[in-house]
Amino acid sequence: MNKIVLITGATAGIGEACAVKFASAQFDLIITGRRQDRLNTLQSELEKNYGIAVLPLCFDVQDRQSTTSAIENLPERWQKIDVLINNAGLALGKDSFEDADMNDWETMLNSNVHGLLYVSKAVLPFMLARGKGHIINMGSVAGKEVYEKGNVYCASKFAVDAITKAMRIDLLKNNIKVTGIHPGAVETEFSLVRFKGEEATAKAAYDGLTPLTAADIADTVFYCVNLPDHVCINELVITCTQQAGTYYFHKKQ
Ligand code: NDP
Ligand code: 8X3
């Protein structure tokens, strides 16, 4: 029987690339996101191209009730989750602290922090019952170093880093690996979401750079997941070659 990976935020970017990578290696997939049409399209493509089974689950990770109930009510065949990739998340706005929008702050904290907690708490009983599992949390370089106007997005990713470390310690006794992945700039829909559909601003974020691709991060996640049972990568910080930390870039003119 194929191993099962649950990927949150699989309708775009890094999550979608992880779905393709794991499907190509014959994992069965539970894919989640809020856009049902994209989940359906991805399901058909992956089932057709790789002959694996895909279960789409449409819910907003900010909604504790629907998140918990979608996962708790998984058919028995899908409860044997080997790998959880907590990837769903976003930045909203890039504004100085005094100008930033409180609604944006709440959405980031609810999605990036609370959502990750709701999903993890719902999936964990299945892993505990089997005495094994691997949780990958998508952090960011923004969770390692605060940058100007990054304020609450950075705070949400610092929280992901702390939660990742805490999970690893508390779940040590349960044979569950926990890995934090902390990417720098990856060209996905991330900037378009952050800048609320302003295409020129979103695109400018990558001007003069050869940024990471979603596939680069998927390859890294796949590597971490496919190591021997006794090996756990605790965390990886990954940037493109033209980036160091959160604010040093060597951009081409
Ligand atoms: P994308 O915008 O391309 O993808 C984000 C994914 O998250 C989508 O599938 C989206 O699905 C899902 N998502 C967002 N909010 C929710 C929600 N409330 N409920 C359910 N799903 C949600 O961005 P990336 O692929 O770049 O981002 C993925 C992760 O990587 C995020 O956690 C981000 O913070 C992190 N990251 C990104 C970096 C980058 O430069 N791109 C760098 C470092 C970290 P839908 O809209 O269908 O709900
Ligand atoms: C996304 C990377 O530097 O835009 O987490 O915050 S950054």
Tally of distinct domains: 1
Report the sheet-strand fraction: 15-25%
CATH fold category name? Rossmann fold
The largest sheet is:
7 strands, parallel
What is the mean predicted local confidence, pLDDT?
98
Q: What is the CATH H-level superfamily?
A: NAD(P)-binding Rossmann-like Domain
Question: What is the class in the CATH system?
Answer: Alpha Beta
Small molecules bound in the structure, each named once: NADPH dihydro-nicotinamide-adenine-dinucleotide phosphate, 2-hydroxyethylsulfonic acid
Share of helix among residues?
40-55%
Find the structural class using helix and strand composition: alpha/beta
Principal-axis shape: globular
What secondary-structure arrangement, pairings included, does this model have?
Blueprint: E1 4-7, H1 13-24, E2 28-33, H2 36-50, E3 54-58, H3 64-72, E4 83-86, H4 102-130, E5 133-138, H5 151-170, E6 176-183, E7 186-187, H6 190-194, H7 199-204, E8 212-213, H8 214-225, E9 235-238, E10 243-244, E11 248-249
Parallel strand pairs: 1-2, 1-4, 2-3, 4-5, 5-6, 6-9, 7-8
Antiparallel strand pairs: 10-11
Bound molecules: NADPH dihydro-nicotinamide-adenine-dinucleotide phosphate and 2-hydroxyethylsulfonic acid.
NADPH dihydro-nicotinamide-adenine-dinucleotide phosphate binds next to helix 1, helix 4 and helix 6.
List keywords for this structure.
8 helices; Rossmann fold; 11 strands; binds 2-hydroxyethylsulfonic acid; seven-stranded parallel sheet
Give a structural overview.
The protein has 253 residues and is an alpha/beta fold. It has a single domain (4-238), classed as NAD(P)-binding Rossmann-like Domain (Rossmann fold, 3-Layer(aba) Sandwich). The protein is 43% helix and 18% strand. It has 8 helices and 11 strands. Strand 5, helix 5 and strand 6 form a beta-alpha-beta unit. Helix 3 packs parallel to helix 4 (102-130). The chain is globular and about 50 Å long. It binds NADPH dihydro-nicotinamide-adenine-dinucleotide phosphate (NDP) and 2-hydroxyethylsulfonic acid (8X3). NADPH dihydro-nicotinamide-adenine-dinucleotide phosphate (NDP) is lined by residues 9-15, 33-35, 60-62, 87-90, 111, 115, 138, 140, 183, 185-186, 188-190, 193, 214.
